[in-house]
Amino acid sequence: MYDILLKHLEQRKEPIDVIVVGVGFMGFGFLSFLQKMKGIRIPLVISRRPVETRLLLKNSGINVVSEDIQSTAQIREYADKGSICVSDDLSLLKKYENAVVLEMTGTIDYGTEASLIALKSRKHVVTMNPELEVTVGSELKVIADAHNVTISDVYGDQPGSLSRLIAQARLMGFKVLMAGNMKRYLDLHATQEQMAPWAKDKGLAVRQTTSFTDGTKQSIEMDLVGNYFGMKVLKRGMVGPEVSDVKEVLTKFDWDNLPREGVVDYVIGKNLFPGIFVVVEHTDPNQKKYLRYLGLGEGPRYVLFEPYHLCHLEVLQTVVKVALFGQETINNSLNPINRTIAIAKQDLFAGQRLDGIGGDTVYGMVDSIENSEGLLPVGLSHHALVKHDIKKDTPIKVSDVVLPITIATRLTGYTKPQHRFQPVNSFFTRMINLF
């Protein structure tokens, strides 16, 4: 597949134009690396901080247009000369003629707004944003399907990497029993103050780092994998056994009594690589001697794993597959079976505002849709107003808070749109109310 993608890019007479929304840590890494690739380019970057973004690109040796350009013809002219335009104007997503928008905002509301504009303009949307996917991804997929375009998260993040590994396993005749994440450290009550030094050392946002440490990010990622592949969780927050080697997962579960569709989970250990794994068994019993010879063990179950995920460097694989073939890597599906709910990270008090994913007030845990009925999705928790005191480690109900009216809470039907239409529960009516 990789040689096919490279060949397509190298032989193109006209490059694939990709608009990037958001230039954070990963966004910049992708943008910088793409300068060396043939057959694809970034004519336009949308940023909420265009002045700072231009300065970042300029100081990093990337050709960037110094002024704000609104003319799509001029943007294309600059792109032909090898320069990138930067703007904070989301309407350019609609005006500039191209096929793919890469959403890398790391936010839910702003990312949703950008994605909606792109999809309604009949453009494919590639997200590097599992938080957005599990919060509004199913609603966005309805819109994408209606406009005959694709929405997909990426290779490089754990969900996309697991999607690829699952596909590889199935193509080799394996049945996937578990898709999993490898984690080194977990502190459900990690605070931004605790994580600030580590975040600074790694060049990451402290909110992002906190969501890694308190397990929210992991729950969200496995939520997304489970929804796409129809794989369940065994318990709220998953099991997460401690291991010193990923292959020890084979001794940690009752494999004969797992759900037939498979499950998502994780293992934790300080010596683990930041990678992904699947537990499989082969459908052909004659393969047992071959798998023993190849070093996978005695069976009947085996662990396939990748000890890394290369984040922004792998994103291009999804972008090109979407641009050329409309082929998704992973998304939240039209019928999600899991949800990541908000749980109080500390004792909460009436009148307090929740600070959302990666903050000090909540952490997220994945659970089944059935067990999450009436509970607050963690992706909608930001700025929610607490109605009454809530004890630490208590799942937060939607009825426990007053949700802000945002594009995400409206799209998902949790708040009423502020205009003349009377909202009902149907998705179609919510779309009318929004647009």
UniProtKB/TrEMBL annotation:
Instruction: List the Pfam families.
Output: DRL_cat
InterPro entries this protein is in?
A: DRL_cat (IPR048423), NAD(P)-bd_dom_sf (IPR036291)
Transmembrane ranges?
15-34
Q: Which UniProt keywords apply?
A: Membrane, Transmembrane, Transmembrane helix
Key word Transmembrane present: yes
All copies of the Oxidoreductase DRL-like catalytic domain together span 156-315
Q: Does the keyword Transmembrane helix apply?
A: yes
**What name does the UniProt record give this protein?**
Oxidoreductase domain protein
| Species name | Candidatus Roizmanbacteria bacterium GW2011_GWC2_41_7
Lineage of origin: Bacteria, Candidatus Roizmaniibacteriota
